[in-house]
Amino acid sequence: MSMSISLPTDLPLPTAEALGIFRESVMANYYREGRRFAWRETSDPWKVFVSEIMLQQTQTARVVPKYEQWFEDFPAMQDLADASLEAVYGSWKGLGYNNRALRLREAARQIIAKHNGAVPCDEKALRDLPGVGVYTARAVMAFAYDIPGVFLETNIRSALIFQFYHDRENVPDSVLEKVAALVLDTVNPRRWYYAFMDYGVFIKKREPNPSRKSAGYSKQTRFEGSLRQARGGILSALSTKPNQSARQLAGSTGIAYALIGEAAAALVAEGLVRYDGVKFSFGD
């Protein structure tokens, strides 16, 4: 089934026939070579929620081993809520964007306190949780509760742009969202989005990253010498040897002192790190 919506007029729009062919191609690819992941084998809302936080801005291949290990370290939501930040980082280490670990622990605490330990199935309630935006909320609703909603990510953008707008540049998300709504399977959105994402992966093997033609596309900044590298270096150093000064951190990481200071200040502001006026350590 597809949703009935008003159509944009600023770009040529797929015909009903073209949309039907696209749906068939997506599902044929899924039945032929759909990917298997542990989080696709469960409809447990908490496990789905954790997977979606881990997958934010992170390649699937990096998430696979971490996801399995995570539930060995924190089998239940309460285990995460009670864990120290150092323990949480130790399990998260290697996934990058480490503030997600802090937000995930805080989300666990809020779900327990405000929702009796049940991950909400309402978009507003989900978006009230730390680290959850429109995409994550709607993805959790689809994958955990089979509730339909329109959302985009890089593989979905790639599939839509390659199929319908391959000869265009700067294709806006507003258009892609409307086309995504037209092809959405409202009866089985969980299966549809698995297939949709897998089709985007299939397309990217044939055509180098069609999502570059998206208006919202931006290249990831260089990691070496970046603030991201400094943030990760600080957390890694503190997990090996707690309570270090900025100069000690610069020495142990090999990162410039000025960059260490800037990164450490940001980590303190986010609550990932504490500062006693002399040395830094993990937050509570």
Kindly state the number of beta strands.
Answer: 2
Shape label? globular
Order of SSEs, N→C?
Answer: HHHHHHHHHHHHHHEE
The pLDDT mean sits at 89
Rg of Cα set? 21 Å
What is the share of helical residues?
Answer: 55-70%
Low-confidence stretches: 1-9
What does this structure look like?
This protein is mostly helical and 284 residues long. 59% of the residues lie in helices and 2% in strands. It has 14 helices and 2 strands, in the order ααααααααααααααββ. The protein has helices at 16-33, 45-55, 60-73, 77-82, 85-92, 99-115, 123-127, 134-145, 154-164, 173-183, 189-206, 227-240, 246-253, 257-270; strands spanning 273-275, 280-282. Strands 1-2 form a two-stranded antiparallel ribbon. Strand 1 (273-275) and strand 2 (280-282) form a beta hairpin. The longest helix has 18 residues, at 16-33. The protein is globular and about 65 Å long. The model is unreliable at 1-9 (pLDDT under 50).
Which descriptors would you attach to this protein?
mainly alpha, 2 strands, 14 helices, globular
What is the topology?
Blueprint: H1 16-33, H2 45-55, H3 60-73, H4 77-82, H5 85-92, H6 99-115, H7 123-127, H8 134-145, H9 154-164, H10 173-183, H11 189-206, H12 227-240, H13 246-253, H14 257-270, E1 273-275, E2 280-282
Helix pairs in contact: 1-11, 2-8, 8-11, 9-10, 9-11, 12-13, 12-14, 13-14
